[in-house]
Amino acid sequence: MSNGLDRFLDSEHVSDADFGIERLLKNREKLAQRASKLSAEAKLAEEDFQAVDQLVSALKQNQFAKIVKLQELMPKIYSRVSTSEPALEEIFKQVFLKAREECQRVARRYPALIQDACLEEGMSLDQTSTHPKYTFCDGFITLEINEKTFEAKAYTREGTLFVKPFDISLIISDIKREIDRIFRRPFKPIQVAKKLYSNYKSIIQKEEKHMGDQIPIRKITTRLGKNQKNFRTDEFIIDLSKLIESGAPVVYGYELDLGHTKDTRSGILLHRLESHGYIGFISFRKEEKT
Q: How far is CA 21 from CA 1, 7, 128, in A?
């Protein structure tokens, strides 16, 4: 031994073996292997629990499309649970079969079901909606139903909002949440106009342009996306639409001016002003005194 205890011990009679070091090392390795095995088993057990727990939760809420999706996402886990708990194998088969049958029934009745759900939640479904596409807020949000996969996809012109099982309870709550996020935020015209002005001014200064010069409106959204936390283009469009509808205020002696484009990819359509065409450019011009 090479530590300070040497002076108290007779090195001729005391060795590492006398303290059982070798045996301890061997047992430590066995314990490490056992701990690793138990940890792996615990991880699998947690996966099994979560799979069954999610299934129970979906059953309680009659979310049959979610059950179908769970089966598709975790087939190996449900198979493993069936092997370890044989009594559950037949139950799983019955549940998954019943879920698919219910989804097919729901798909046939979707128009009436979604209409009733919207009325119950105080939501307005656009009258122009036809299955399998439903629109909300004058066409701003589209909900598309896939009867083969039992999924629903919600989107705006700016991109996808969500894709999930088409269970009515899930879909309606998420559509309502998106409507609140996009349309029911506080709207302050002066603040919106000033934000547009400050971003426009920063861009033209960087590009060595002059006040009044047009720049692509997507440069504004790109800059906001980089500098504003949780920026969403769909919210930007609604704010700009409200600003134009209410009459954009003059800021710092400059008036907002929007220019059109035929390029549908670089332009944006203002909400409820779609007939005016795509907006592709933005500028601020010196206020004209009358």
A: 12, 20, 81
pTM: 0.84
pLDDT digits (tens, 9 = 90+) for 150-191: 999 999 999 999 999 999 999 999 999 999 999 999 999 999
Distances (CA, A) of 226 to 56, 66, 127, 250, 253: 42, 35, 38, 26, 27
All structural domains of the chain with their residue ranges: 15-103, 105-183, 189-286
Beta strands 254-261 and 215-216, pairing class: unpaired
Mean pLDDT of 74-100: 95
Token readout for 246 is: 């209410």
Check: CB of residue 54 under 8 Å from CB of residue 74: no
- Quickly list H helices, the chain: 21-60, 64-73, 75-84, 87-121, 168-183, 189-206, 217-227, 233-246
